[in-house]
């Protein structure tokens, strides 16, 4: 029997969010529960917060968990905006032990890949054709690449070098806040980043997500690139939905 409900947790640089998910609609069931990301965001400290969120909902099924990291076969290989101690950590084993689950009931994946999976499944059908790139603008810039709806996991397009800088150090949403940039000022940086990226991979569609997508009308119309840009339909809940989907369907990279 296909599961109709799932549970996802999205670990970010500033907050860890979890919620029950309606897998038929791709929508949250009730409110999400958020706790600030611990400082430092070590594996054990983060696992404690994740356990707290799971307990809050009383969920006893499979759990999908995203990390701002390259994740291969449950192991974290990078650590963006979380503690470097994550590098080399078997996240599957860590969370299985902390949540008292079998490792098969934990699905670990990159946060942007999870958000992209949710958009491909539940968002605009245009995203399922050709080459689609989802970009999440938050503490950093996450990326997910799809060819005809199939994920090419663990792209790190947020770390492209643009004009001598790591792209996310100039164009992430956190930079807008930290430097006090207006939307037009920040949109100029996003535009420069997207123009470099589109010249490298020639996508058919960009989808922009992350918390700043809630204010899309303030910056997306200012972009002047050749690739069409869609705003993520699930906005900042896409990571949670994608994580729940991965756990329910046993998808992991």
TrEMBL record:
<dbReference type="InterPro" id="IPR000600">
    <property type="entry name" value="ROK"/>
</dbReference>
<comment type="similarity">
    <text>Belongs to the ROK (NagC/XylR) family.</text>
</comment>
<dbReference type="Pfam" id="PF00480">
    <property type="entry name" value="ROK"/>
</dbReference>
<dbReference type="InterPro" id="IPR043129">
    <property type="entry name" value="ATPase_NBD"/>
</dbReference>
<protein>
    <submittedName>
        <fullName>ROK family protein</fullName>
    </submittedName>
</protein>
